[in-house]
């Protein structure tokens, strides 16, 4: 069954209103995500499909299960980490490089993170030594009174990008965005208390 799933062409148009993007089964309001490695896209997955990859399917095809761990980190202030802006996340790649992403009203701008900066971060935050390339990220927020550092699933970073892009108003972002960002990180803390599936919202 697993081989059938990982070799199946991903069908994006299904009759179910909220389908699993592997098998087409209806999804619950909360569910897992898979990273489609070829196009770097997140796909929504039902519990049975997610469990296939949780039990060893990851690496056997072109999909990776996005992990379900969120770890709040403590240590030096984000301003002392060499991060060029106040809101960013960093995604290690299989080749050892690290991509930096900066949420903005236009989406997320992207660039390479200096290897020395990443080595310094990993040295300061032990959980980063086990970060999974492409599907986990180091998230930093040092803006408008926020002082947040997290190891998070990549789908949380996608939610953050959508939040910034959707709420941004005017030149400075607007009061709605800056009120919503602390709630986003409070939600990370709540989600971090749970384990297993079902999990994050689409």
From TrEMBL:
Pfam families: DUF5947. This is Uncharacterized protein. It comes from Acrocarpospora phusangensis. The lineage of its organism: Bacteria, Bacillati, Actinomycetota, Actinomycetes, Streptosporangiales.
């Amino acid at each position: 069954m697993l081989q059938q799933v990982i070799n199946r062409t991903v069908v994006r148009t299904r009759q179910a209103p909220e389908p699993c993007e592997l098998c087409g089964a209806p999804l619950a309001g909360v569910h897992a995500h898979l990273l489609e490695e070829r196009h770097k896209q997140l796909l929504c997955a039902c519990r049975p499909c997610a469990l296939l990859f949780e039990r060893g399917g990851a690496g056997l095809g072109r999909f990776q299960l996005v992990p379900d761990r969120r770890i709040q980190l403590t240590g030096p202030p984000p301003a002392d980490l060499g991060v060029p802006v106040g809101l960013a996340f960093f995604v290690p790649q299989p080749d050892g490089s690290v991509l930096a992403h900066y949420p903005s009203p236009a989406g997320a701008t992207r660039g390479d993170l200096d290897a020395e900066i990443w080595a310094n971060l990993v040295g300061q935050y032990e959980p980063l030594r086990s970060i999974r390339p492409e599907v986990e990220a180091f998230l930093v927020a040092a803006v408008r009174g926020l002082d947040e550092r997290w190891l998070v699933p990549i789908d949380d970073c996608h939610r953050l990008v959508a939040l910034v892009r959707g709420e941004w108003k005017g030149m400075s972002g607007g009061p709605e965005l800056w009120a919503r960002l602390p709630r986003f990180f409070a939600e990370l803390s709540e989600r971090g208390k749970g384990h297993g599936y079902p999990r994050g919202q689409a």
